[in-house]
Design a protein that fits this description.
9 strands, four-stranded antiparallel sheet, 160 residues, five-stranded antiparallel sheet, Thrombin, subunit H
Length: 160
């Protein structure tokens, strides 16, 4: 079976940045299961997997526009520490959600000064060219239940 819309795909992968540093890998874990065409993985990788079959291996380089996007400096804010209930508890790398009725955004503490905290709403991999080595472990048709359940895949590590 070839990968297409509403296929449940299981992949093993190694993800590297443009310097070759390994950022993530499925080695030693269950493969990553996703439903093709549902936006569960980045567009560049999903496009590269389209039409492939179980057992195939591929190396894919994905530019930021087809990965986690380009950096948007308007998502970086310096906020006075006085705006926070616990201003002395910030550490670089901390993450938290902010939001309203328009949606939520994960903010990362990018810097901590004497008077301000720098918050960054960009994905940590925004602006990064990504390299994937992928091995397709399995491909099958999604069940009606999986399709109706907002593309929730009942894969090997599901527990549902």
């Amino acid at each position: 079976m070839q990968i297409g819309t509403n296929s449940v795909v299981s992949i093993h992968y190694t993800l590297r940045d443009e310097t070759g540093e390994v950022l993530d890998a499925s080695e030693g874990r269950e493969p990553l299961d996703y439903m093709h065409g549902s936006g569960q993985i980045i567009p560049g990788l999903e496009n590269a997997l389209e039409g492939k079959s179980k057992g195939e291996e591929l190396a894919v380089v994905i530019e930021p526009e087809k990965g986690y996007g380009t950096r948007d400096e308007s998502l970086v804010h310096e906020v006075p520490k006085s705006e926070f209930e616990t201003p002395d508890e910030f550490e670089v790398g901390m993450q938290f959600r902010v939001g309203d009725e328009g949606g939520t955004l994960i903010m990362v503490v990018a810097g901590v000064g004497d008077e301000v905290v720098t918050l960054d709403g960009n994905h940590p991999l925004a602006g990064v060219t990504l390299s994937f080595d992928v091995s397709i472990a399995d491909v099958r048709e999604a069940t009606e239940e999986e399709i109706k359940a907002s593309q929730h895949v009942h894969g090997s590590g599901c527990g549902c």
